[in-house]
Sequence to fold (687 residues):
Amino acid sequence: VVGDPKTVVYRKHFDVPVGSSVREEWAKIVAANKKEFPGAKWENPRESTALPDDILGAPIDMSAMEQLVKTAAGKLPSNEQAEEVKKILLTGLSDILKARGFGSHGIERQNIPGFDKDDIIGTLYSYKSGLNGWLTKMEAASDFAAALGKIDAKKNPRLWEYASQYIKDVLRNSDKIDRMAGNIKTVAFAWYLGANIKTVSVNVTQNLIIGVPRLEQYVTGGAGLWLKSAMDSIGLRYTTAGVSGTNKLTKDEQRLIQELYGDGVVTDAYMEELRGRLTKNPAEKTWNTFIKLMGYPMSVVERFNRASLALAAYRAATKGKLREKAAKEFGLKPGEEMNYEQAKEFATMLVRDSHYEYGKSNAPEVFRSSVAGRMASPAYVFRSFGANTLNLYARALLKEGVEGRVFLAKSLGATIALGGLTAFPFYATLSALFSVGDDEDWTTKIRKALPKNDLLRDIVCYGVPSMAGFSIGGSLRMETPLTDGLRKGGSYEEIISQGLGDIIGIPYDMGVTRISKAMEAAKYGETSRMIEALVPTAVSNAMQAYRLATRGQTSMKGKPINDPGTPGARKINALEAAGKFLGFQPISSAKSYDAYMAANRAKQVHDEKKNDLVLLALKSRDTGSAEGRKEMLRELKAWNDRMDKENRPSMKITVKSVMKTVADRRAENKPTKKNLQKKAEQQAVWH
Fold:
């Protein structure tokens, strides 16, 4: 009752069901209460919306805000009015702040349907996880404030500024920009990684490349411990109800996995980050379910990787298998066993160190602070694994002494074993840079230096999986954005343009590369190739497998592409087609592409050398002096002698071919009637 007791102002918070409107819901409320309040004054409702986090800021000093409200209300002439205004303002302010996430459950409302009633377990899980996030965020805010207070802003202004911005970023609730970025990631995940079995196989290798070498850095016999733990981790199932299938584990080990699952250590963190997060509109429920199904195999593998490594680390710690330096680091004596809590902490550290943290809490500042950076974050997400790996390698090499360098050597050795020398970090970039002017790249030289055994050469260049006819090296590689441009040997403009496209990543591929390929295919009447360029990768792999097995490899114009000395378009066999269907690159295709690039490189160097010789010969023709021709003959002989020494007769250049090119170029510039007429026609267009 406000003011005149005869006038009742009806105040109530209410949610509007999907498909209805504020006006319709308000009309129902008025109709239901008119009889009870016959003389009431019914005002039009005001729609309540959550304020952007950029306005509210984070963290918010609640006590200071309360004091501001009290001080402002105290300036009113009437104490009763001041108390009423203060109460209204504090209640409204509280509701606004509560609306930021889980706190919305604390707003006093009546007759609200609430969650979807079809999935009670999912509803409870969403509610409890929201509560947990809300409470832990408050706890984190307190810890952050204490940590920030220990930084002297005068002595370390940049550190204080970075830390302050970091706190704001990680405590900020998701807004429409984050949701848009999440939607982009969801579409990109479905398009490029969804239902791709090869990606699952590559995920399996992470413990072999990172986890086990990292474990062995701290404990003895790490490989054997992990293998046993991996076998015991097969069959573990993770649901909202907890972890099941732990009958192979002791009670303490079961407790460990359950707690690490609850703590978000044994989880599919990378898959969650790659999948993105759509808004919780009921219409998107089916799409979210579909995305989870497409990524389910990858989620299973990631949880398996984390659980098996955590279990191996826990078992090593509780059996006193830590190396002397590692034991000292954790305050233990050599051979001393850790208790449960210590072993759990060690396992947590090792898993997070080997399988990384994802999300904005571990993203570079540029991708979590500004609007432009947050919109560009999907491009980084698909490269975050490589960035984290490089960061780990740098830390091991520069800050962890001999043990760190041994870990790095083991990790790189595992990478080479699984992907070959071509999977070594930045191999292609370094090869292109250090082979400038050379007609042979590193891969060609390596294969030539090895015995004439194709299987041996394939294993060295493409890894052990080449024995089965496939290569996963392409998925293990880390290269710079300039790699493809450098390998193709284009102009600086082409190299930089290609590099910019690689930096932009998936958005560029979807909006430029794929569209360009589709348009080119349509131009030449290749309808199936046009569809192949536009559909998701899983579908495209199946189409490519069928095309390469039946029609063979052709250019977009339909020209057959064959292996040297083999007539007709190159085809893949049934086994390779099955692998391609699942996303694996046939070893024959990898070799064919590398051979094609090597041939292009050789031709480019050959043509550049020939052009240099032609210019020397033209110099003699234009000046009337024989010096240019003599210099051309000396350089030509030196070049051909080198090619004879390397047993490469196809790269030799003849005097006849040089002089023919000289004659052709002079003929093009000769003032003949035909040339003059052609130039006149060209000039007439512009005058």
The beta strands are 237-239, 242-244, 470-471, 585-586.
